[in-house]
Amino acid sequence: MTEVVLGVCGGIAAYKACELLRLFTESGHAVRVVPTASALKFVGAPTWAALSGRPATTEVWDDAHEVPHVRIGRQAELVVVAPATADLLAKAAHGLADDLLTNTLLTATCPVVYAPAMHTEMWENPATVANVALLRSRGAVVIEPAVGRLTGADTGKGRLPEPEEIFTIARRALRGVRPDLAGRHVVVSAGGTREPLDPVRFLGNRSSGKQGYALARTAVARGARVTLVAANVALPAPAGADLVEVGTTEELRKAVLEAAADADAVVMAAAPADFRPATVAERKIKKSDSGTAPTIELVTNPDIAAELGAAKRPGQVLVAFAAETHDALENARAKLVKKRADLIIVNEVGVDRVFGAESNTVTLVGADGTHVDFGELPKDDVSDAIWDAVLTRLPPQVAHDGTA
């Protein structure tokens, strides 16, 4: 049974940690809740003890003969702090240890995941930004907060991500997924664009966005700063990703080009419409009395991946996707050259194939001659394989002292 420590800090989002605790215990993990003193003002120790089946204390002096301030951290196989306040992040970054949770963090040698929750101004304060960067540089996973309603009437970035999303990232850390994308900014596009015909109709495709969301989710778990540009996706936003919602191909193009300006890698997993109506009717197109169908003139949409390839900076990695119904490899290789991509992910698609499924069967083709066939895998595992390939093509990061 895996030993998990759930640290809980004093914020209004502390109540959400109860659901996170339930997800861990129902998955067979043994969980020790270590709250701060202020956390107990929101959720009491009896609640944590009842839900975890273990005592919950804030003090290093309780059961001193068992040396809990050292033992808990040493025995932990995963530490998750949710919510993590600005105060806790500062203490963890600078090695302060004035209660049981901070002592546990100082002695833990296992993966550590922080899920911050605070007001936007606190999250964006230069001190917090520096503390988060320091923790990430040491290998900790610090999840980007969600955007939404905060305490009171405030809205902005700083909301605790949903427990299910935190659990997904924590579970990957428990599996040994390293934060090897820390310090990188990656852009992922997902979903399918819709081109309006009239106020009620559009041209679209069957893309569900699941592969793109899996790419974003796994990149977050590996420590990256992730911008996810999503076109018409009906899925919960992955915790830690900056979500940009778009509708049409032109909207997708503008958002991706803007985000790609400082990105280390861009993965175009979205399915942009190749064509759009030349004109959009201002009113709903009606059936004629004669039963004759109207003629719709189409024009070609811009090739976003090709535009990214033409503007690619030295060291930037571009990954394109080729969803094909026939001659998949031949078509994909032609696209790889045309788009000036570093990698292209090939899959054969159709009704009841790939779209909306939880798994995918792909071939990875590289501009360097790489050719790897993957059997049917869960989309998260496909995503990890893609990020592995991206990492081998990214230049080494330069540390603050100038070393690689």
From TrEMBL:
GO terms for cellular component: phosphopantothenoylcysteine decarboxylase complex. Coiled coil: none annotated. Residues 186-404 are annotated as: Phosphopantothenate--cysteine ligase. GO terms for molecular function: FMN binding; metal ion binding; phosphopantothenate--cysteine ligase activity; phosphopantothenoylcysteine decarboxylase activity. Residues 1-185 are annotated as: Phosphopantothenoylcysteine decarboxylase. GO terms for biological process: coenzyme A biosynthetic process; pantothenate catabolic process. Gene3D superfamilies: CoaB-like (3.40.50.10300), Flavin prenyltransferase-like (3.40.50.1950). Signal peptide: none annotated. Binds 1 FMN per subunit. Residues 181-391 form the DNA/pantothenate metabolism flavoprotein C-terminal domain. It holds the Pfam family Flavoprotein. Pathway: Cofactor biosynthesis; coenzyme A biosynthesis; CoA from (R)-pantothenate: step 3/5; Cofactor biosynthesis; coenzyme A biosynthesis; CoA from (R)-pantothenate: step 2/5. It catalyses: N-[(R)-4-phosphopantothenoyl]-L-cysteine + H(+) = (R)-4'-phosphopantetheine + CO2; (R)-4'-phosphopantothenate + L-cysteine + CTP = N-[(R)-4-phosphopantothenoyl]-L-cysteine + CMP + diphosphate + H(+). Its EC number is 4.1.1.36, 6.3.2.5. Its cofactor is FMN; Mg(2+). Keywords: Decarboxylase, Flavoprotein, FMN, Ligase, Lyase, Magnesium, Metal-binding, Multifunctional enzyme. CTP binds at D274, K284, F321, K335, K339. Catalyzes two steps in the biosynthesis of coenzyme A. In the first step cysteine is conjugated to 4'-phosphopantothenate to form 4-phosphopantothenoylcysteine, in the latter compound is decarboxylated to form 4'-phosphopantotheine. Catalyzes two sequential steps in the biosynthesis of coenzyme A. In the first step cysteine is conjugated to 4'-phosphopantothenate to form 4-phosphopantothenoylcysteine. In the second step the latter compound is decarboxylated to form 4'-phosphopantotheine. In the C-terminal section; belongs to the PPC synthetase family. NCBIfam families: coaBC_dfp. PANTHER family: HOMO-OLIGOMERIC FLAVIN CONTAINING CYS DECARBOXYLASE FAMILY (PTHR14359), PHOSPHOPANTOTHENOYLCYSTEINE DECARBOXYLASE (PTHR14359:SF6). HAMAP family: CoaBC. This is Coenzyme A biosynthesis bifunctional protein CoaBC. It comes from Krasilnikovia cinnamomea. The lineage of its organism: Bacteria, Bacillati, Actinomycetota, Actinomycetes, Micromonosporales. The gene is coaBC.
